[in-house]
Amino acid sequence: MTLRTRTTKCLIHRSRLIILGVWLAASHGPARAAAGNPPSAVLLKSGWAVQSDCKVHGVGAELSMSNAPTEGWYPASVPATVLAVQVAAGEFKDPFVGTNLRSIPGTSYPLGENFSNLDMPADSPYRCGWWYRKSFHVAASERGKTLWLRFGGINYRADIWLNGRKIADSDQVQGAYRTYEFDVTKAIKPGEENVLAVETFAPTPTDLGINWVDWNPCPPDKDMGLWGAVSLMTSGPVAVRSPIATTHFPDASLQTAELTVRAEVNNATDHPVEGRLEGTVAGIPISQSVRLAAGEERTISFAPSDFPQLRIEHPQIWWPVDQGAHPLQTLTLRFLLNGSVSDEQTSRFGIREVNSELTAKGYRLFRVNQRPILIRGAGWSQDMLLRQQPERVAEEFRMVHDMHLNTIRLEGKMETDEFFHLADEQGFLVIAGWCCCDHWEHWDKWTPDTLNVATASLTSQILRIRSHPSLIAWFNGSDNPPPANVETAYLKVLEQTHWPNAIVSSASAAPTTVSGPSGVKMTGPYDFVAPSYWLVDTKYGGAYGFNTETSPGPAIPSLQSLKKMLPPDHQWPQDAVWGYHAGGEGFQDIHVFNDAMSATYGEAKTAARYNQVAQSMAFDGERAMFEAYGRNKYNSTGVIQWMLNNAWPSSIWHLYDYYLDAAGGYYGTKKACELLHVQYSYDDHSVYVVNSIYKAAPGLTAVAHVYDINLKELFSKSTPLDVGPDSSIKAFDIPQEVFQTPSTVYFVQLELKNAKDMVESRNFYWVPAKLTEFDWAKTTYTHTPAKISEDMTALQSLAPSRITATARSAGTMVHLHVSNPSKALAFQIAAELDDVQGAKLPRITWSDNYIELMPGEERDLTALLPSDILSRVELKGKSGLKVKIEGWNLEPVTISSQVTPEKSGSPLLVTKATQDQ
């Protein structure tokens, strides 16, 4: 993830790894319940038993028989890592709370170190192999068919036994990100119970495993086990896998789309076969005859030059989120032998084309359907125990859309099929690639076998994900580009698997002798910098080019979330337990953030005040970063916030916390990424309007007011303007002398109105009399420190304000009206929904939050109350809800409410006549 280690090149000669009986491929089925598998697949999900070989001293030939004893084994559903199985069984206290993780045997590695690069401790229970065992019935009707046993992910090695027969051993099965398909026709017993036994082994420091870098601790089992789905698939003699349809638009009109269809076919027999591959793509029939030699695997293609019907007029085009619709088409291919279907596969795809190029300044620019797009994204993390939670992922996608982000970056975290299906359906763009900071980038220590595992892993993943329209790029490295021989091997795989999207050597700016410059940068920062940094920096992480990972630093969870993740005696003041929930290596505490808070805003002496200031800092920091990249497009071409989410409860690097609670950073991002947005520039006091959609916005009016700390108006201007599609335009400059009027802090209030005088965007800034002076000479990969911090301490003594508020609901939508009848500014007003006990409800997203109200000003805010949360707060048809409103300089306001059913049966929020102030 972050740039800490330099690797030296080594010469590795690539050799081919041949695994008999194993087909490294992935399949795509149309049914969500069987994502990644064809209709004939049976998921082997429940009814597993798991136990350590140190306890059972098992023999695969015996454990894979029906009479093998499993008393005392852990019950499990797969996919699940070993530790996830134990946690689900109640073996350990919640490892995500406090330092409970350190109490689990084997978690004795030094605090903050990257466990991936260390050996298992001598007393670790995960030094042993761990067995996964399951019995399952196979119908007698399957007799005579070809049966395939598929593993979607094994970390890291395994011996696999079925009905007393060894299917594969740990020399063949190694690699966390490989998928495996075994022809088990001769081992399966149709009409009987079958028993599968898999002994898994954790990765070593010289394996291409699963790595948590410095994001969070690593679980003591290193996520060993069956982390991907296991399924049994049937076919005839010839199997079809990984169907894909790619698009090319001959010209910018997009009125004609040329489709190319491909699929992998495999002859499982010991003799040649002749048949026909046929099907439909977007409703268009295609067919061709195919001859396969004994045991042959081959890619079959349908090109528009040979199949003119694949030139489609007036296609339904797939567009990224917020740029248009995302229609998905169906591709179905079947292989016929003697007129009978041997196998059939279906996948969904979008008619869209992705390209990338280097601008005149050498910056990588992405185009979707020949239109440039400013990448605004964030880095994704799975759950630390790799638990698959589709409902949670769906909610996270909703929150990503709510922030107006368009891209998610995966660094070495190969997500589930469900993840990619959601991205396809909702129009999100995905950048995928390998991880940094462990053996994945220790190329000087690689052996030929390491390279074989790496290329086999790449083959597996590309075949699995290549058909998804959401994927736009693959990064062959993260912090460093691979050496020439490795990059060449990777590029060969990408060519052979027909990867249809961009390929970038790494997430860093280092060029290679094979592919040249990357066009991207990874120069930080990852820790706190003042908001002006993003516009004044011209050398490091400032708003130019494509920054693949960067951040204004820590993101403090809400007080309610802190209560969930920290024991009561460690919630305040901050201590080592807080540090444990920061990051690793150079991020084991949040002192840079805390020091900046004290220097800029003054010391926070209570937990509540600290959290309040921290949320405002996160709001201000995230807004400034995304706004700077928006103003400078397309001199800036992309920015990936590090990160979007966390693998466990953390105080750093997220836009919403582990409990899906949206706080300051979330709303700062949402504000900055508005599709039609007005913003202020710290560097030159200019006001810009940024349009992020491919449609012009004429007849707008930009309005600005500047006030001193006492709300004396220093400047006012209103100007009409037309804004072109996907553009950034300066509305006007605020004169420099306005900010030379004596004041400790200035307030800049902006509005953007449409032709009907309705507000499209509003923004409010607190600007220091003197910006932070950065100590550029002391810049590190973490951040650029402040030589002299800006002074915002006057905000701590703002004149007291007060607000009035009412709330009502319509279905699951809560409407809040707030007004400021006082003569003082109401600063950083934050609303939340609480249950009757006063606990903040998670997953509540407001239309706007952390807002300001000038004297006499009023606003309407709305919040979506998810139906499952609403049903939980109902008690016998009647229950309480509270809307709590806080701000820097006002007493909290609580609106007590009730939830009662409407006549239709849907719940209704009713505000009581009284308020608690």
From TrEMBL:
Keywords: Glycosidase, Hydrolase, Signal. It comes from the Bacteria. Residues 129-200 form the Beta-mannosidase-like galactose-binding domain. Its EC number is 3.2.1.165. Residues 898-917 are annotated as: Disordered. Gene3D superfamilies: Galactose-binding domain-like, Glycosidases, Immunoglobulins. GO terms for molecular function: exo-1,4-beta-D-glucosaminidase activity. Residues 685-766 form the Mannosidase Ig/CBM-like domain. One of its GO terms (biological process) is carbohydrate metabolic process. Residues 1-33 form the signal peptide. InterPro entries: Beta-gal/glucu_dom_sf, Beta-mannosidase-like_N2, EBDG/EBM, Galactose-bd-like_sf, GH, Ig-like_fold, Ig-like_GH2, Ig_GlcNase. Residues 782-889 form the Exo-beta-D-glucosaminidase Ig-fold domain. It holds the Pfam family Ig_GlcNase. Residues 240-352 form the Glycoside hydrolase family 2 immunoglobulin-like beta-sandwich domain. Belongs to the glycosyl hydrolase 2 family. This is Exo-1,4-beta-D-glucosaminidase.
